[in-house]
Amino acid sequence: MKDRLVVIGNGMAGIRAVEEMLARAPGRFDITVFGAEPHFAYNRIMLSPVLAGEKSFDDIVSHGADWYAEAGVELRRSAPVSGIDPAAREVMTSAGERISYDKLILATGSHPIMLPLPGAELDGVVSFRDAFDVDRMVVAAGRGGRAVVIGGGLLGLEAANGLLARGMKVTVVHLMPGLMERQLDVEAGRMLRRELEGRGIEVVTGAVTEAILGTDRVTGVKLKLGPEIEADLVVMAVGVRPNADLARSAGLVVDRGVVVDDEMRTSDPHIFAVGECVQHRGSCYGLVAPLYDMAAVLARTLVGAGGSYVPAATATRLKVTGIDLFSAGDFAPAEDREDVVLRDPGRGVYRRLVLKDDRLIGAVLYGDTADGAFFFNLIQSGADTAPIRDTLIFGPALCAAA
């Protein structure tokens, strides 16, 4: 008799874990997946091109009905799970069902952070997290008018670009002095700002949002020590937090996220977790690469093949048409590090490499990211760059020639 595997979450991490497990031990488990959304699994990181009108939603569906049928996976759509009973090894649905499991995977993702501002509950205030959010933004953009995006990070800028492409006038309001400060250094941030302003996006940095204005529907945004900005739509893109609500209510160990060991096991030996809901060795992750690495480790754990999750360097790219931007590793200033910088203002190209003990530990590329994979591989491998030090900044072709 097959063991019963239940997966809570039909997102990228949960489905990747199922894929990895099926590849290693097809037929080992009777699998049921619960998804809160009405959709089949889709590529969430491609929502930005959907918002910009460059792709349709169907283009980003990664696993359609045929995949679930062929894989023998039962998918419950629009079926949020309301609770977990670890003692009985059952999950409870909002419809009142109780489904038993032998092994349970939590892949509940994350919640968008909504700032507790006056007016945050008004109609026209949205997050940018799922297909429902994109639908709301597309409808709002169809009416025209002005949009204010609160947050100048990766998602905020992708939202701003998408709404601009849909015909809205857009203002980005960002708390920090520079855009995408977690991924970019000061110079690259300045170049990005100039590019966005050249496209017609207004950028306000160093700005504290004090309130969202309106009676029933949003009409504007009030900045502390700043002006009021008219708005027909406000997008909050200030970050996410792990969705650990179910785990917490079930009595599992939860800190910022669901605490797991190196095998992705929670404090209950029959319950595992993967993806953005997870906290591993004190860290939570939001990029796709570490989530997929977790899924592979979890699959090996479930089929008894062993393995441990080891965090690796991650890379970031901005999904905005016509803007090439790449960053990876650690580029914070320190006395024991050396910067190698190339600037070509005429071409709009900027490169900064950060070296420590002849090892590449960080890279920021703007305007020309073709060599991103080369630099990322050097960061991951920790290879000695001394033999190619003089040509390193120019990429693999000159390094090979040297």
From TrEMBL:
Residues in FAD/NAD(P)-binding domain copies: 4-280
Keyword Flavoprotein: yes
Cofactors that this protein relies on: FAD
Alphabetic keyword roster: FAD, Flavoprotein
Matches recorded under InterPro entries: FAD-bd_OxRdtase, FAD/NAD-bd_sf, FAD/NAD-binding_dom, FAD/NAD-linked_Rdtase_dimer_sf, Rubredoxin_C
Residues of the NADH-rubredoxin oxidoreductase C-terminal domain: 315-382
Similarity section: Belongs to the FAD-dependent oxidoreductase family.
Name of the protein in its database record: NAD(P)/FAD-dependent oxidoreductase
Organism (species): Flaviflagellibacter deserti
Lineage: Bacteria, Pseudomonadati, Pseudomonadota, Alphaproteobacteria, Hyphomicrobiales
